[in-house]
Request: fold
Amino acid sequence: MTVEQVRAAFQRWYSLVESGSDVLTALKQASAPECIVHSQNGDVGIMRIVDGQIAQVRLAFPDLELEVDHLMLTEDRVLAQLTLEGSAVIPFRTTPPRRLRSIGALMARIDERAEIVETWPYLNPGAAVTFPTRTKVSAPPQPSGTPGTETQARALCAEWARAITVAEFVQRIVTTSAPNCLAHATNGDSGRVDLLEEEFAVVSSAFPDVIVEFEGAAFSGERFISQFMLTGTHRGPLGIMSPSGRRASSTGAIAGRVDDSGRAMELWVYLAPGMGLLFPRAQEPRE
Reply:
């Protein structure tokens, strides 16, 4: 496989999106029949396991649009970093529908046939409800510094992967980020790293016993993505969802760029903590 073949496989999916298909439906159409999807509620299986999520997105965001902000390409994977925007119809019932913006990502593994055979979606178009945007937004800082190496990116992700609790994870993010690190939160806000602290604080408040388990990572030069799963008991409010007492999981990821000192110079966080509540796993997570 070459990087150009990987790019071409991605472009087949994106051309379907541009022609009017929603994100997940286009993914199903562009993937091999045996494609494995890592659903955001923690389930892993063939593409039909996301049918319920496709239906929900269609109902809630009938005009959802996306824009590709950046592609990270390796010899067998593509990471598409996205901006999502659409009018939320359900469950808000507002007139006119509330316009919401968020960031998301889609990672896919491509085989020697140049077909998508495994995928990891990180899409939460309603993130601004779970993570309210800041009312006063100053101009975001601009990252500066010399890009680092893949070795440094791997070392940074390995440092994060030692965390067990979300509090440990967040602390490691803060201490390994450059002073002028530009952070992009799931709800579309950009600013300093404290934005990411705020988002993880929302998760910890809703799931006081939440733990983090790291699942994998991909690298290309100074760029990287680290994938993880969050699991906890829903004991606090989460957006419009009241405490349910249920144990639930959700997948998440943090993408970034490392500088030549080995610190994060730019970060993107993708969280969807409500996915395990909206779409319970086939097998409930254990205590």
Q: What stands out?
A: Residues 150-278 form a domain with the Nuclear Transport Factor 2; Chain: A, fold (CATH 3.10.450.50). The helical segments are 3-18, 23-30, 51-60, 127-130, 150-160, 166-175, 194-206, 275-278.
